[in-house]
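Contributing new complexes? Match this layout with calcium ion.
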Amino acid sequence: MHTKRTLYFVLGALGVAALLGGTLPLLADDSGSTTVGAMADTTATQVVQDGDNGAKTTLATCPQTCDNNPRGWRDAVLEFAVTGLPASAGHLRARLRLHAWTDTAARVAAYGGGPAADGPGVTTSRPNLPLAAQLDVKDAVVSGFNEWDVSAAVRGNGTYTFTLRQETLNTRVYWASRENQRAAIRPELTITYDNSGPPAPSTAPVPSAALPAPSSAAPAPSPTKGDPKPSEVTVTRSPAAPTSAAAPGWRLVWSDEFSGSAVDLKRWNLRGSEGRDIDRGCNTNSPKNTFVSGGLLTLRALREPATCSSQQRQYTQSYLDTIGKASFTYGRFEMRAKSPNGPTNSRGLWPAFWLRPNDGGNGEIDVVELPGGAQYYRAATQAIFWDYTPVKQDQRYPFAKGYPGDGFHTYTTEWEPGRLRWYIDGQQVYERDRGTTPWFDKAFSKPYNIRLNFQVGGWLGDPDASTVFPADFQVDYVRVWQR
Ligand SMILES: [Ca+2]
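Output block (do not edit by hand):
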């Protein structure tokens, strides 16, 4: 997985940034330095206003009593992959650096360990893991970068997780996250060393104060060996895909036909062990919840106990995104898919195909949301959001005949400067433009990435005894065209 992650190494002494594939040139014969950007970070026990795991610009910390937070400590958890240290590196000094926007009289301690990452760029909680030793503490937060000496935890190349815990001041402190649009203020781990060290073992040791790297982060779903999935799967064979659904003038720039036997992790991130506050399920990267077979991607919701983000939950679910892998400014986005939602069996099930801006700021384009339940199952929702107060515009489009769960349908959004159009099975059903939407240009003139997820529970209701699990949201393809 590490080779698929983008790590930012900064040669500190020279101030020259370079993207490297895993080797780090020495600055001098006798010393060196490397700065690694966080490959994952999150606010543990976050609340909605701290941002969501997929698109946030800040991390928050707050003591247990902060704002009467019912979920306990709000900690900032960060994970770094150190791969560039030479075999001869010795006397390692490691500094964890986070940027805050204001001076604040809050004591903040850095610990080794904490919840670990479960997918490329996604840190989520593994609850009940005790924090390792306290590494350093600062009595106050300063505007700009704050540094903690975490040398005691860093032994060499490897994956390191740190937790920042705010011990005083019952007000949240905000820190720039790895997704902040200003790259210069993102979290860093800076390591300096000399060349006095013994040759390192050929495989990275597991540092005592850090968690081991998650076992290959996101196991590629495999239809074979030991996986109970194939015997459980009811694969709905995909009828022949439409030859070309594109309107004239559009050219295909990205697609996944799901014709292989596993989720293509070059195209998608698969979120794991993530519990968002807006729903009732745990996103997992288990092949039980997300798999490719028979030309289809299946996102499967299950009724089963799971723990994520320090919470015990009763459902598991699937969430894929293209953050860091594919993004688009304008385009024609289409999914051909079958919702599992029928009239009597689907309360609390919520498949969706949508887009969010890379900068994590304002804006959201929902190509389609397909909430289940007797009230909702007949319609497909088209929506745009400015923010989540919420300032949004949307409609629920009831099928004239049938309903989204009666078979495969295509859901399309054409996004052009100043205009958005939505189609179902090739027929236009909704349109937004600068006239309908004063915030159109502010929200929809920057790169967006793609999300496919199957949420259980939330604003439109939670499952009840009638909801049937497993429930499968089956996707034949996702295609993106541009002009
Ligand atoms: Ca397909």
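Reviewers usually confirm one structural detail per submission. For this one: Residues 238, 241, 257-259, 295-296, 476-477 surround calcium ion (CB under 6 Å).
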